[in-house]
Amino acid sequence: MAGSYDVLVIGAGAAGMLCAGTAAAAGCSVLLLEKNSRVGRKLLITGKGRCNVTNNCDEDTFLQAVRHNPRFLYSAINAFGTADTIRFFEGLGVPLKTERGNRVFPESDRAADVVDALLCYVKKAGVKVQTADVEGLLLDDGQVKGVVCRDGSLFYARQVVVATGGLSYPRTGSTGDGYHFARQAGHTIVPTQPSLVPIVAQESYCQEMMGLSLKNVTLTVKKRGRKKPVFQELGEMLFTHFGISGPLVLSASSHMTGDLKEYSLSVDLKPGLTIQQLNARLLRDFGGQLNRDFGNALDALLPRKLIPVAVRLSQIPPDTKVNQITREQRERLIEVIKALPITPKEFRPVEEAIVTSGGVKVSEIDPKTMASKLVQGLYFVGEVLDLDAYTGGFNLQIAFSTGYLAAKAMKKE
What residue ranges do the domains of the chain occupy? Predict the structure, then answer.
């Protein structure tokens, strides 16, 4: 099978679908190729199936949330910003709501509504959507000519957009194909690593507390040799069979690069209380149960799964009567509660990361069009680029903004 189009987009995710639909709406003939039998598979699992489509913030706040190469995104976010994303989806009949941290979700809490709206937009614009597994680019004398698929199919276009994602969640189709296409075109790939990813901990007590979710705690990450924390934020986290996960941990991971042995983590279990206030609270709690064993006297203060760990780390024998606890012992307990130590061992595999850090080197891409500076007619959008941001809708916004900007640069042949 062969065909010729103005624009060919590889990958029907967030960036690919918005790019394809926008280019078709401008009059281009567009073919959207997706190797999965269904479009938007990764979108369906974002935000725990709710799809955090963007963050309701201004352009400056958005750029501050981008971890790598924020300046590269200046033109893209100004061309199609967070407010544009909100208007776009509401215009497609997907009412949105803004939650804590300015995270924007569909009112239905269904990611499928976002995917269905994008697919409807693409089809109404006249895009042809086809299932095909692209093997490589067709290149000739510094110009892209189309693609070849693994079944031998050829599709021709003088403008090809690579929107294949990174390496995270490979079961959704993000298996690094775009890096292969980029290398084929002579592009440099910045080494990839997981970002927004759970952390494996050395301490066995994390597994002991598996399933325990903590809300309104402060996670602090410090790096050896630095006085100021590299990360400190209030939020939610989760203990797992391997270590720690949850929103706080995912955000913290994006600040940790290189050898994780350089980092130490601590959790303030009672950030709303100063040391003095926590001491007064303990004295008050202990005052009502002076003859109880220490190990049974923390129910009002800590979650049940946390109590044996806190008791052990405080080095106070659990059968010590509350009325026998010394000031020094109480201070050790306070230290544990205000800074529960966690030692990072390694990140979980990139397959479990929300987003991939690294990718196509952005200095080789025109930031005003997303076009390759090396091959005429070739474009890169979304996660395949060396762009990543904090959790909270920022990474999907990168996909939408870059996809839109590339589409606006497309020409009808």
Answer: 2-193+351-409, 198-347
Which strands make up the sheet holding 199-201, listed edge to edge?
A: 340-342, 263-268, 213-223, 231-239, 243-245, 199-201, 344-347
How many alpha carbons lie under 13 Å from residue 248 in its C-beta half-sphere?
23
Identify any residues that bridge with 139 across adjacent strands, giving them in sequence order.
144
Judge contact between 171 and 155, C-beta under 8 A.
Answer: no
The two three-digit tokens of residue 216, written as one number: 């309104």
215 Cβ contact partners less than 8 Å away, ≥ 6 residues apart:
235, 236
pTM for the whole thing? 0.82
Domain 2-193+351-409 annotated CATH 1.10.940.10: no
What's the average pLDDT block by block, 10 residues per block, for the chain (413 residues)? 86 97 97 93 85 96 94 98 98 96 95 97 97 96 96 95 82 77 97 88 96 96 94 95 94 87 97 96 92 93 96 96 95 97 92 84 98 98 94 94 97 77
CATH architecture of 198-347: Orthogonal Bundle (1.10)
Cross-strand partners of 213:
238
**AA letter at 361:** K
CA-based diameter of the chain, in Å? Answer: 86
Q: Is 150 in contact with 85 (CB distance < 8 Å)?
A: no
What are the distances in angstroms from CA 256 to CA 107, 249, 320, 392? 34, 11, 40, 18
DSSP string, 242-254: SEEESHHHHHHHT
Are the beta carbons of 362 and 369 closer than 8 angstroms? Answer: no
How many angstroms separate the CA atoms of 156 and 148, rounded?
9
